[in-house]
Structures are given as C-alpha cells and as structure tokens.
C-alpha cells in the first residue's frame, strides 16, 4: 500500500482508526476468509463455528460493560463487526443477533440479576439466544404486537401466548435451529390491563434441540441470501415463565400483580425501551456500507487490470480509463467515503449516549433519528452500489467465486430489517417537523398530522462535523450561477441547505393546508407523504455532506486531504445531478447551470483517475477479505 492509500485509510477510519486496525489484524486468518457455501446446513454449521472462534477470543465482549463481563467499548464493538460483514454477512448477522440484539436486550432492558444470570453465558455461547420481536402481522409497528404475556399472581408466572395466526414470531434469526432461549417482545397484561410491549426471557428448546412444551418452532427455509442464518418462526401456547424473566429496567410487576415503572407515560416508556436497542440499526447501516466497500474494491481493482478495445495508436484500454466507467464507480467510491465519515460521527454519538449514567433524552432522540436516516441511506447505497459493481465486472461479476452476487443477495434484506426504509424515512421526517416532541413518537400518521398542524414551525436543525469550519463556509456562500462555483464549498453547502429548508417549510405548509381541506386526517397525511419523504432525504444528504467536511478537516496529511476534497466535490455533484430536476422546477438553478454540473462531474472523475488505486486502498478492506478470483490477493 502506498503512503497516500495508507493516509486515506487512516482518515476514513477517523476516530476509530485504532479499533479498526485491531479488527483487521484479529480477522486476518483463514477461518474468516470469504467463502461461498450454497448448502444451508453446512453454511449454518460454519457460521456457528466461526462465532465460537470469536467467543473464545473475547471478540463480543466490547459491547458489554465490565460488570456484565465485557470491556464497555461500545464503539469498538460496532466498528469491529463491519469486518465480519466484509468476511461473511451470515456470520455478521448471526453475531449481531446473538450479541447485539439478544445480548443487547438482556444488557439494556434487564437489571443486575439478569446480567449476572445471562450475560457471561451468552458471551461465550454457552447460551445461544434469539431476538423475537417481529411477527407475521406486525413488523415496524412494534407497539401493536399481538403476542401476550399475562401475569398469573397465583403462580407468580407470566403466561406467554400467540393468540392469533398473525402473532407468530417470524423471520427470527436463530429460531430455526441454534437458539435455546428467546428475548420475546409481548404485551404485558396484569390485572386485565395491558401495560404495553415489554421483553421477556423465554426458553424455547432443551439441550437436545427439541422444542419445549407449548413452544412450536419452524424453519423459514431458503431465502434470497444469508444461507448461514437459521431464520425461523415461533408460536407460544400457554408457555409459563417465572416473574423474574421479565426484563424489568423500565417496568416491573410485583408478586401481587401491581405494575410499576420509573416512566409514567406509556408512550415515552415504550420508546425509551426501543431507543436503547438503537445499536442494531447503527450496526446494520455500517455493515451495509462495509459490504459495499468490498464490492467497490473488487470492481475497482478489476477495472485497473481488465482491458477492452484498442486505442487508435495501438494497445488495449483499461476499463478505468473510460470516462463512462469512471462515472459508474468513482461516485460510488466518493459516497462510500461520505457514509464512512457520517458513520464515524454516528458511532461516537451512540457511544456517548449509551455510556452515560442518565442519557439526555434530547440526545437519545437525535441519535435515533440520525441512526434511522443513515441506515436508510447506507442500505439503499448497498443495494444499488453492489449491483453497479456486479455489472461493471461483466460476466465475471456474475460468478459466485467473485463474491459480488453473494454480496448483493446477502445485503438485499438490509433495506427492510432493523426498520423498513420507508418507515424509517418517515421517522426522520417526523423528527424534523415536530422538534422531537414527546407526544409525536407513538402517534399514528393521522394523529401526527393533527399535531404537526400546530407545531411544524418548530423545526429542529442540527449541524454535524466541525461546526466552526462549517460556519466559515456558510458565511462565504456564493451564487450558484457563478462560473466555477460547483467546486466551492460555500456554494455546495448553500445548495444542500436550500433544498432541505425549502422542502421542510413547504411540507409544513402543505400539511396545514391538507388538514384544513381533507375531512379525514389520514387522507391529509397521505396527501403530503411524498413531500415529507423528500424532505427527510434532503436532510440526510446535508448531514452526510457536513460529516464529509468534518472528516477532511480532521485529516492531517495534505496529499490525502487534496484527494478527499475532490471526492467530496464528486459526492456533492452526484447529489446535485440526481436532484437537478428539483433545482430547475423550483427555479433554484438555470438549465445552463445544470448542464455545468455534468461538466464539473466529468472533470472530477478525470482528476481523480490517477488516484483510484489509492482511493481503493483507503476504503480499508483487508486483502484477505477482498479476495476473489478476478482480484486475487497479492
């Protein structure tokens, strides 16, 4: 690796450089070499054996406090798992379910007695669990899950039931084969009154792998990808668990059935509980980008070696020397850097919030909104970017031995788990338009529409990255019609801000008008939903751009900083090119200037061409994990 490539990698690693370097070393071994195993039984076996290696070496302990048997390095836990995604996404998902979701539920929703009983066994895989939240009838709408947990004071037990076909726990990783225990989310009922969704530790299998009485598990079977993940379904028929199996940090039931909680509002209680599990959403977004970096590394290196068609003066041309090929891959590389810098900031914020004794509620909500928006952006990027990489490698990209097809298949579900992307985009919009108001968080769309009518003027706008340098850039903003301005940070920032602010303010006005015009509140919300989604996307684009600026500002190497500045230009130009119709329709830019976007875009591709190999090295994919037949290890 050249000095420039090394400095770019260091800059992209950012605050987490040391932690990522440790993970690169720890996973640089044959057990984690990429592989293709189409046989489901064998793939599941391999994934579990890899987890056992990780457990034996203490890899999962970073996400747990010292009192729980870990190290308390939450950020390291999240950035390290990115390298599992680069190795095998089945391994990443199974590890995420075991130590992130199941373990996270115990650690964050339980109390000391639960930590003492479960944390160390689940860390070393003596206890394999699953995270049973999603149901056949309810996925994103967790508040309305149908599984019930009814307290019986006579026996001091909770009775877990699946009262309807749609209450079946579905798509649960680990439920088909390996999990012995489930963290089950169910409606807590005591004294004939529901206290909302809570989490319970429920054994589902004995030591021989047989279903326990009242529990029925089944296998989801073949999926589009992730063959090593044993997704399954669970039904409960009067399954009894002790009162102590309620994870009671935010709500408890006394022996006589009396319910108590430190949080009076049921809405706030629910979202506080769910908010503690935000690490899963942060992880999914980061791992989607990590997988895309692998694809870009393979496709980029292929383009630097594969020749096609002759020059007039003789000799065949490298794929990467064609402008059309540069336009395919370089903007994706620029976006990979952009999301990398944004992810670094998000993980730092998550570590700050989740390490606090009493987390600030405002910061918690901001974290959830940012995690939702970046998860949407990164998983969408993976779905589109990996496909482009596959096509950029022609027929070779379609061979399993070259990894791109498997990366595409394995990341495809990321757009819908840990929150459907459409729903999460709406969540971001809600936060933007209502200033993180408590009342909004549990509202249905039509209830929210009524609330927003009165409160949309209170828009919360948070800046990211290096605030001081951003203020300097804002102060020197230039006219978008000025020649050459598309390379100017002030103009770029102005264009991001202008689109976001206009969409938010006009969404608010449309919401108010629709509420006056429509008889049904749902119709009012439905009428403006497209506009609201666009406002949320504009907000995420702006925050990612600012994170990129912050990442450049933190880079100390001048040569690397110059390349990063050009990559940042390319990221901004790609967003403007995607949205140039909006700028024309809203008279923010003339048609002549939008044509200049394409010229500037092409020029940045050409100026970055000499640095492509270094840019690829900077993506930070270890050679072992980037290995494929068309780009073999050195």
Features:
13 strands, Butyryl-Coa Dehydrogenase, subunit A, domain 1, Butyryl-CoA Dehydrogenase, subunit A, domain 2, 10% strand, 3 domains, Butyryl-CoA Dehydrogenase, subunit A, domain 3, alpha+beta, 634 residues
Topology summary:
Elements: H1 3-13, H2 17-26, H3 40-56, H4 74-87, H5 89-109, H6 112-123, E1 129-132, E2 148-152, E3 157-161, E4 169-173, E5 181-190, E6 193-203, E7 215-219, E8 231-236, E9 239-242, E10 252-253, E11 259-260, H7 266-275, H8 279-303, E12 307-310, E13 316-318, H9 323-355, H10 361-392, H11 404-411, H12 421-434, H13 445-455, H14 467-475, H15 489-517, H16 521-554, H17 558-578, H18 580-585, H19 591-608, H20 612-618
Parallel strand pairs: 1-5, 2-5
Antiparallel strand pairs: 2-3, 3-9, 4-8, 5-6, 7-8, 10-11, 12-13
Walkthrough of the structure:
With 634 residues, this protein is α+β, with helices and mostly antiparallel strands. It has three domains: 3-128, Butyryl-Coa Dehydrogenase, subunit A, domain 1 (Orthogonal Bundle), CATH 1.10.540; 131-275, Beta Barrel (Butyryl-CoA Dehydrogenase, subunit A, domain 2); 279-626, Butyryl-CoA Dehydrogenase, subunit A, domain 3 (Up-down Bundle). Helix content is 54%, strand content 10%. It is built from 20 helices and 13 strands. The chain has helices spanning 3-13, 17-26, 40-56, 74-87, 89-109, 112-123, 266-275, 279-303, 323-355, 361-392, 404-411, 421-434, 445-455, 467-475, 489-517, 521-554, 558-578, 580-585, 591-608, 612-618, and strands at residues 129-132, 148-152, 157-161, 169-173, 181-190, 193-203, 215-219, 231-236, 239-242, 252-253, 259-260, 307-310, 316-318. The strands form four sheets. Strands 1, 2, 3, 5, 6 and 9 form a six-stranded mixed beta sheet that branches. Strands 4-8-7 form a three-stranded antiparallel beta sheet. A two-stranded antiparallel sheet has the order 10-11. A hairpin with a 4-residue loop joins strand 2 and strand 3. Helix 9 runs antiparallel to helix 10 (361-392) and helix 9 crosses helix 19. The longest helix has 34 residues, at 521-554.
């Amino acid at each position: 690796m050249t000095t420039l490539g090394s400095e770019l990698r260091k800059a992209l690693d950012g605050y987490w450089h040391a932690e990522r370097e440790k993970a690169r070393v720890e996973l640089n071994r044959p057990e984690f070499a990429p592989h293709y195993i189409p046989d489901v039984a064998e793939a599941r076996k391999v994934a579990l054996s890899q987890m056992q290696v990780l457990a034996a070496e203490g890899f999962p302990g970073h996400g747990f406090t010292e009192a729980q048997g870990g190290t308390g390095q939450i950020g390291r836990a999240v950035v390290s798992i990115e390298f599992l995604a680069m190795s095998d996404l089945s391994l990443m998902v199974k590890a995420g379910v075991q130590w992130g979701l199941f373990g996270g539920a115990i650690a964050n929703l339980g109390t000391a007695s639960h930590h003492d009983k479960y944390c160390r066994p689940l860390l070393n895989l003596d206890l394999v669990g699953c995270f049973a939240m999603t149901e056949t009838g309810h996925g994103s709408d967790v508040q309305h899950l149908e599984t019930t947990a009814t307290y019986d004071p006579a026996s001091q037990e909770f009775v877990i039931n699946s009262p309807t076909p749609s209450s079946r726990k579905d798509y649960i990783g680990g439920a088909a084969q390996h999990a012995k225990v489930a963290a089950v989310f169910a409606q807590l009922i005591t004294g004939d009154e529901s206290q909302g969704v809570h989490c319970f530790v429920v054994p589902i299998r004995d030591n021989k792998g047989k279903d326990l009485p009242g529990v029925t598990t089944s296998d989801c079977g073949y999926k589009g990808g992730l063959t090593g993940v044993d997704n399954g379904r669970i039904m409960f028929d009067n399954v009894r668990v002790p009162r102590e199996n309620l994870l009671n940090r935010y709500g408890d039931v006394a022996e006589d059935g009396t319910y108590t909680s430190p949080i009076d509002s049921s809405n706030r209680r629910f979202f506080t509980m769910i908010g503690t599990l935000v690490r899963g959403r942060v992880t999914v977004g980061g791992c989607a980008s990590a997988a895309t970096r692998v694809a870009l590394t393979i496709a980029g290196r292929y383009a630097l070696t594969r020749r096609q068609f002759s020059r007039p003066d003789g000799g065949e041309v490298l794929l990467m020397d064609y402008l059309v090929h540069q336009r395919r891959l370089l903007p994706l590389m620029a976006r990979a850097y952009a999301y990398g810098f944004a992810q670094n900031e998000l993980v730092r914020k998550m570590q700050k919030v989740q390490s606090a004794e009493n987390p600030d509620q405002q910061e918690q909500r901001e974290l959830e909104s940012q995690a939702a928006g970046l998860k949407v952006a990164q998983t969408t990027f993976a779905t589109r970017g990996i496909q482009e990489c596959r096509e950029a490698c022609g027929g070779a990209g379609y061979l399993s031995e070259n990894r791109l097809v498997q990366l595409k298949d394995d990341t495809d579900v990321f757009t819908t788990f840990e929150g459907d992307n459409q729903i999460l985009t709406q969540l971001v919009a809600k936060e933007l338009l209502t200033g993180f108001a408590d009342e909004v968080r549990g509202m249905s769309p039509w209830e929210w529409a009524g609330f927003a009518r009165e409160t949309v003027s209170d828009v919360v706008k948070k800046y990211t990255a290096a605030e001081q340098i951003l203020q300097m850039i804002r102060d020197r903003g230039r006219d978008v019609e000025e020649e050459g301005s598309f390379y100017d940070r002030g103009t770029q920032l102005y264009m991001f801000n202008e689109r976001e602010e206009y969409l938010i303010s006009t969404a608010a006005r449309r919401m108010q008008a629709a509420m006056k015009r429509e008889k049904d509140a749902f119709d009012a919300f439905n009428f403006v939903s497209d506009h609201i989604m666009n406002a949320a996307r504009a907000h995420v684009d702006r925050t990612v751009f600012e994170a990129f600026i912050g990442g450049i500002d933190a880079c100390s190497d001048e040569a690397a900083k110059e390349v990063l500045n050009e990559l940042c230009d390319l990221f901004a130009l790609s967003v403007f090119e995607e949205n140039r119709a909006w700028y024309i329709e809203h008279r923010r830019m003339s048609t002549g200037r939008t044509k200049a976007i394409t010229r500037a875009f092409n020029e940045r591709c050409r100026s970055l061409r000499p640095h492509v190999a270094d840019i690829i090295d900077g993506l930070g994919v270890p050679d072992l994990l980037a290995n494929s037949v068309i780009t073999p290890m050195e």
